[in-house]
Structures are given as C-alpha cells and as structure tokens.
C-alpha cells in the first residue's frame, strides 16, 4: 500500500474538506457549549463592577460556603486517594474470588444518579432512616450536617482515583515488582521505589479529577445538606440559592470561583497528560 507524504496510508487520508468540516464542527460545539458559557459567567460576575464582585465573595455566608467546600474536599480526596490506590492494587496485582464484584461496586457511583446517592444516605442516617433512632439516642447528626455532606461527596468521587489506576497498573504488569522482590527488596521498598514511581502521574491525574468533582458536586450534597445558610451550603448550593433569589451578580461571582477551579483543573490535567505523553 502506498503511503503519501503525510505518513498515513492512502485509504486513511480523508479529503481536506472532510477534515475541515469535522474540525469546524468540533470547534463550533466546544465554543457554543463551553467557551461562550464560560465567558458569560465572568461577564455577569463583573458586570456591576469589581467592588460588587468582591463584596459578593467577601460576604460571610459566601466565605462559609467556600470554607465548607474546601473542608469537604480536604477530607474526601485523601480518603478516596487511599481507597483508590488500595482497590487498584488489589484488582491489578491479585487474583481472588469476587474480583468482578469489586470492580462493579467501584463503578456503582458512575451508574447511580447523585440525587439517588443522597437519598440512600437519608434512608440510612436520616431521622426516620435505618440508623436514625440510634443516632438520635446518641445525639449524633449526620444528615443536614457536615458529616452527611462529606459522606455523599466521598461516595460520588470514590471511583475517580481507582478508575485511573486500574487500567494503568494492569497494563504495566508485575514484572518489575517481582524482580525487586527476587533481589531482596521488602514489600514497602518495592512499593515506594518501583510501583509508586510508575503510577505517580496516573495517581495525580485521578486526584485532580477527584478534587474537581468533590468541589463541584451538587446533586448528592443538595439532598443531604438541608441548605442551612452559613452551615451546610457548599459553593454550588450557595450559587443556586443566590440565583433563585434574583441576586444574579452575587451568584455569578461565586460561580466564577468554581469556573476558575475548573480552568485550573483543566490546566493541571493538560500538564499531566503532556508529562505522561513524554
């Protein structure tokens, strides 16, 4: 088969107008559904001036929402980091009964609506839930409090790290680890000097995605939070309340913080992909 100057087989070289149409369609789609809404968020946030923007962000209720969002991410991300690493290690390195069941359970948060996820915690820990009477008798509150928000966030973000590591570790195999053990390295030495360096970029990629989802989660958190201003409202919930109260400038100001988070996450994601590509 002849190979043209572009370096691809002739049968795979589409006409220039086809490539232009596909690229143009992709760019138009991204521009309409991604770039334009992003620009509008920042435009609406600064439309009434920088002073109004800063006042909306510095409002005590808004600061409380930012602090709660960071607290939830600070708890959920490390927990899912450890869970994802352990689950991926078990699935990629060992053979055991119930392996497929474990993989299915890891994928469960992807297939269940976040609202349904929140309802599950209400049915478990709510006042009339399965553990509700016991929690009330011990003066413990999970639903409509910070613990419920953390649990809901941990559930919906639990597959992020594991799903990035499992295919990577399966593709890498165990030959280097077995060689290190044969040469006398301990299990911890093998992990920190052989296994961890091989997966560090995939691990970081999963952590970045987990953190972005934790800070931006709305559905599950909305169900278990109770929408108590200054106490159980995260940034997405605070944006919804401000918008429903027709405080558009304040709503878009807080939303711009989430948009900045998305841009930072995208930049880190691109940097990791570039680094792993090298």
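^ Assign residues to that structure.
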């Amino acid at each position: 088969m002849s190979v043209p100057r572009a370096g691809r087989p002739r049968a795979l070289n589409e006409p220039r107008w086809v490539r232009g149409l596909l690229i143009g369609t992709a760019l138009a789609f991204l521009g309409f559904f991604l770039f334009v809404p992003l620009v509008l968020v920042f435009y609406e946030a600064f439309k009434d001036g920088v002073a109004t923007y800063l006042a909306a962000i510095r409002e005590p209720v808004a600061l409380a929402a930012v602090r709660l969002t960071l607290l939830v991410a600070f708890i959920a991300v490390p927990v899912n980091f450890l869970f994802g690493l352990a689950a991926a290690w078990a699935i990629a390195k060992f053979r055991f009964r119930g392996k497929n069941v474990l993989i299915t359970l890891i994928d469960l948060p992807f297939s269940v609506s976040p609202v349904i996820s929140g309802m599950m915690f209400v049915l478990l820990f709510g006042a009339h839930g399965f553990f509700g009477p016991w929690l009330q008798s011990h003066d413990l509150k999970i639903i409509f409090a910070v613990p419920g928000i953390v649990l809901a966030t941990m559930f919906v973000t639990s597959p992020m790290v594991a799903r990035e590591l499992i295919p990577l570790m399966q593709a890498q195999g165990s030959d280097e680890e077995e060689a290190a053990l044969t040469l006398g390295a301990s299990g911890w030495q093998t992990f920190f000097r052989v296994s961890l360096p091989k997966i560090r970029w995939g691990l970081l990629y999963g952590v970045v995605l987990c953190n972005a989802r934790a800070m931006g989660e709305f559905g599950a958190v909305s169900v278990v939070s109770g929408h108590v201003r200054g106490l159980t409202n995260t940034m997405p919930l605070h944006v919804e309340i401000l918008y429903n109260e027709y405080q558009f400038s304040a709503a878009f100001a807080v939303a711009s913080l989430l948009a900045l988070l998305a841009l930072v996450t995208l930049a880190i994601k691109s940097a990791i992909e570039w680094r792993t590509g090298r």
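The chain has a mean pLDDT of 86.
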